[in-house]
Design a protein that fits this description.
The complex is a heterotrimer of chains A (about 280), B (about 280) and C (about 240). Chain A is of the alpha/beta class and about 280 residues long. In chain A, about 45% of the residues lie in helices and about 25% in strands. In chain A, strands 1, 2, 3, 4, 5, 6, 7, 8, 9 and 12 form a 10-stranded mixed beta sheet that branches. The N terminus and C terminus of chain B are likely disordered. The chains are: A alpha/beta (about 280), B alpha/beta (about 280), C mainly alpha (about 240).
């Protein structure tokens, strides 16, 4: 029978093929790094709210088209984004907690803070609204009402811009919710979307930025209950990381990005981003 | 009977020998028990050339648990003695590598590599640095000689037990050793298979190899052995030329053993003599 | 059940559309995880074999260490690699953070203990079977290792598949060191996490289904190779 040797041969070939495949795959693993002159890019440390809403997908191609600079966005909470920027792992910081941003610049990590755009925070909650906080014009009072009845409230608890603002509102109402952590006050320690998922499942209240809320697809029984308090304004600032701190920062490209965001073209791109006909961010002149 | 090919051995048989082998005061301790005691013996080269008077086939016999397997493994260098010395005195014996290369062993339950019959033989030649062409010739020759010619590309594990034993023998013979240790090579074979193995042993002797094998088959020992080493409870009780031993052993225990009277209950304890479980 | 149905249709729609983004994400997932597993196998299999065959002081400690490392949380590995590759870290100058290479490095660290431990375990049993025979034919330690590795090669497929399963399914490490950057370091798992955080559970689950199918395809492929390559046994 010829079959035996044929199968042996096929086996030997198969063994060699596997070995070759292993080596090829291992080799390609490192090939991407050595592809020579890559198109220039900058890394932007930003927040989940801007990424989850889809803003970057809308505006970044426009910038890349005019400048030839690719923008790579690492979206984490504001606190984590600032930490990334401090370590020099980003060229530009785009976050939404003014006090932290100004501290970042004052400490010499950033060149200068520019306001870019704003939207607002909203308090969302179950339509049954056990705290009867709907249409309360004062956001701090609304939180006090929630705390008084001990209605479930989910917090980011991740040191993000939204979380920091939420803590400020509790303080305005004279409440320390962390004492109730684990009972009606639940800290998820995760992003806005993940927190809203928990809130939707529990029928809990939450503070959210409007853009994440509008683009969030799993709302279930949650709706916007409190909005319009001027203190709920949510402003985003953009900062170029200081070359004095981190010599490798791509200052020229980073500054080009910041300049573009603040230009007419950039502002109209931001204002032109809509979901369901609603504008999510308003550019600041 | 086919003759063992001596025309073109892959490892020059003109190499200097490592025999004789001498055990002096060898003892072995396992789990706190002395399983081999005070072994003293000298094993000369096979019955060829200047050793024409020496026995070619030395049989190790004794009851189960006497220490036969351990004795062979000690000689082969797979285990080191706790007392005494196992030493080779041949002209090539000052070369440690040569001592390893010039001997081979077949175990009672042969362990074959999970490869084809051909590859099992090829492997031992390869690790000795034999060239590809020589290996091919030698493998074909040995498979033919052991009656496994048509099983060259059969997986060793798929062979019958008798075929596996012959393959193990072929593999041991491949590098043309000077001395061959065989541990009960026909123990679990049917008579026909056992006969084939005995033929192969005879052929190896014809080509000048020294055989040291254990056996519990007294008929086989009578048929094949040139001399007998009788072991009981880890001690060598008698060593004699085969005819003399079978005609009238000097040792009482050996006489009882030959008469089938050396029964298990006469042992002091199973454990003391339980050599197989020690390794 | 409706949720699963939605997820399934989402998966089908995605696959049917041949979405460019999806294809890119799948290819990057495969590239990162397969590379990591290959590298881990090239290091881990010989290392596991060496530990299986040899005796040296600290061997037991090494075995225990690798067994324990199998349970290392991906997030911890991600953080460790982040700290090392960060611009402020010792290897910051390499500029590897937020690249596929960084993700591969993290996954190699995740997969290596699995491959080492399973290889050691598998080859140890084979070594117990082979040891006396190989010593008898005077094989050198290197030849023993080679023989055990070669004859155990099909048994090692399982070790590699378990490693691949861990690599392709983990999200914690690649999220941290890759950054989930669109078009650059977004893989299946980070995309799933992103869609889940957007509240698009159907799409997230749909991507999960696709990941499952890919994982299954890889397993079937490996199984087929084994069945084809492993010699049949009569006994």
């Amino acid at each position: 029978m010829l079959l035996g040797p044929m199968v042996d041969l096929a086996r030997a070939v198969a063994a060699r093929l596997i070995a070759t495949a292993l080596i090829v795959v291992a080799a390609t693993a490192f090939s991407t790094q050595s592809s020579g002159a890559e198109p220039s890019y900058i890394t932007v440390a930003s927040t989940t709210s801007t990424q989850n809403s889809g803003l970057f997908r809308h505006i970044l191609p426009k910038f890349t088209e005019t400048s030839g600079i690719e923008v790579r966005v690492v979206a984490v909470g504001t606190g984590a984004a600032i930490r990334l920027a401090r370590s020099g792992d980003a060229d530009v910081l785009l976050v939404h907690h003014k006090a932290s941003e100004e501290k970042f610049v004052a400490e010499g990590f950033g060149v200068r803070r520019y306001p870019v755009m704003f939207n607002d925070f909203v308090i969302v909650g179950p339509s049954a609204d056990p705290a009867r906080s709907a249409r309360e014009p004062d956001a701090a009072k609304a939180l006090v009402m929630i705390a008084r009845v001990g209605a479930a409230f989910v917090s980011r608890g991740d040191n993000s811009g939204t979380h920091k603002r939420e803590v400020e509102f509790w303080a305005m109402g004279g409440i320390d919710p962390s004492a109730a952590s684990g009972t009606w006050y639940r800290q998820t320690g995760s992003g806005m979307g993940a927190t809203l998922n928990v809130g939707a499942a529990m029928g809990a209240y939450a503070l959210s930025d409007r853009s994440t809320w509008l683009s969030f697809a799993n709302k279930r029984d949650l709706r916007v209950l409190v909005e319009g308090d001027p203190r709920l304004r949510n402003e985003y600032g953009v900062i170029l990381i200081s070359k004095k701190r981190h010599g490798h920062v791509k200052s020229r490209e980073g500054q080009a990005f910041i300049d573009w965001l603040r230009s007419v073209a950039g502002r109209s791109a931001i204002n032109g981003f809509r979901i369901g006909g609603k504008r999510l961010f308003t550019a600041i002149e | 009977m086919k003759t063992f090919p001596t025309s073109n051995p892959p490892v020059a048989s003109l190499e200097l020998g490592i025999l004789p082998l001498e055990l002096t005061g060898v003892g072995l301790v396992r789990d706190g028990k002395r399983v081999l005691k005070d072994l003293n013996c000298r094993i000369e080269g096979g019955a060829s050339g200047q050793n024409a008077d020496e026995p070619a086939k030395t049989f190790i016999i004794g009851p189960n648990g006497a220490g036969k397997t351990l004795f062979l493994k000690l000689c082969h260098g797979l285990i080191q003695p706790d007392e005494g010395e196992v030493r080779w005195y041949g002209p090539a014996a000052n070369d440690g590598a040569m001592i390893k290369r010039r001997q081979a062993m077949v175990f009672q339950r042969p362990v074959l590599l999970r490869r084809t019959a051909w590859e099992n033989i090829d492997f031992v030649l390869k690790i000795r640095g034999v060239t590809r062409a020589e290996r091919a010739d030698r493998c074909a020759e040995l498979l033919q000689q052991t009656g496994l010619g048509r099983h060259a590309s059969t997986q060793a594990q798929a062979l019958s037990f008798g075929e596996q034993q012959r393959l193990a023998l072929a593999r041991a013979l491949a590098p043309d050793p000077e001395i061959l240790f065989l541990d009960e090579p026909t123990a679990s074979l049917d008579p026909a298979s056992a006969h084939l193995v005995e033929d192969l042993i005879d052929q190896a002797v014809t080509s000048g190899k020294k055989i040291v094998m254990s056996s519990h088959d007294l008929g086989q020992a009578k048929r094949l052995a040139d001399e007998i080493i009788f072991i009981h409870r880890g001690r060598i009780k008698e060593r004699a030329a085969a005819p003399a031993f079978f005609n009238g052993p000097k040792n009482d225990l050996a006489r009882d053993f030959l008469e089938g009277k050396l029964l298990w209950w006469r042992r002091r304890s199973v454990y003391e003599e339980g050599e197989e479980q020690c390794c | 059940m409706q949720a699963f149905l939605d997820a399934f249709t989402a998966a089908l729609r995605l696959v049917a559309s041949g979405d460019q983004d999806l294809i890119r994400i799948i290819l990057l997932s495969l590239k990162v995880s397969l590379s990591a597993v290959c590298i881990a196998a090239l290091i881990g299999i010989p290392l596991g074999g060496l530990i299986a065959l040899s005796r040296f002081p600290g061997r037991q400690a090494l075995i225990v260490m690798f067994n324990a490392l199998m349970g290392l949380p991906p997030v911890v590995v991600g953080l460790m690699v982040y700290v090392v590759l960060s611009r402020s870290g010792p290897f910051g100058v390499l500029n590897l953070l937020f690249t596929p290479t960084a993700m591969i490095i993290a996954q190699v660290i995740l997969v290596l203990p699995i491959i080492v431990s399973l290889t050691r375990q598998t080859l140890h049993s084979l070594w117990l079977e082979y040891r006396e025979t190989l010593q008898s034919v005077a094989a050198t330690p290197a030849q023993c290792l080679a023989a055990v590795l070669w004859d155990g090669r099909f048994m090692l497929i399982t070790a590699i598949l378990v490693g691949l399963g861990r690599a392709i399914a983990e999200v914690g490490a690649v999220m941290i060191v890759g950054g989930n950057i669109d078009n650059v370091t977004r893989v299946m798992t980070t995309a799933i996490a992103l869609e889940a955080s957007k509240g698009d559970l159907a799409l997230a689950l749909g991507l999960g289904f696709i990941l499952l199918m890919i994982s299954m395809a890889l397993n079937i492929l490996a199984h087929g190779l084994t069945a084809f390559g492993e010699p049949e046994r009569r006994s």
